[in-house]
Fold this sequence. Notes:
Chain A is mostly beta strands. Chain A is 0% helix and 56% strand.
Amino acid sequence: xxxxxxxxxxxxxxxxxxxxxxxxxxxxxxxxxxxxxxxxxxxxxxxxxxxxxxxxxxxxxxxxxxxxxxxxxxxxxxxxxxxxxxxxxxxxxxxxxxxxxxxxxxxxxx
Amino acid sequence: xxxxxxxxxxxxxxxxxxxxxxxxxxxxxxxxxxxxxxxxxxxxxxxxxxxxxxxxxxxxxxxxxxxxxxxxxxxxxxxxxxxxxxxxxxxxxxxxxxxxxxxxxxxxxxxxxxx
Lengths: 110, 115
């Protein structure tokens, strides 16, 4: 079974804090992973792809640990505008579409 | 360039009524998807179309039918609506079904209530 599991949260953090989310996946036959962001009552949008070597985009860092089968997202210097739900997404081998996790809710508090 | 559009934005149905949710994309994408999102359940795939002329069941297809009308349009039909189908429905598209950099673009969603 192809699944990605996330802690639903909520994670309540003060502005300026560093916060990290993990996501575990159950099927090792995975090709790629992604983080999507979903604002309240809006559609999901791609935040960043997750590469084996890790990748960074400004305050956001994503990493993949294939040995332990988890993906992480680190947000540094949290802003109020980072408040959203973050969806972990997996792409598995074979001709199948993306598998979405249920999301982790983040609230950044002033 | 509108991306992915969905109609209607909101709909209230009575049990047993039928309706069709419309979705169109203007990005020349090959693959299109229908999801439903319920509190605590995340996004669940209903049906998808890898390319024009093909459709496949996703995780929760029961009670739904789809039509890939052409490359741009992918509709979702509820033949006999049930309260359990109350949800937010998202349509999405991507250039291909798979691929390491294959981003899915989502429409704004349709909020459906079945009484």
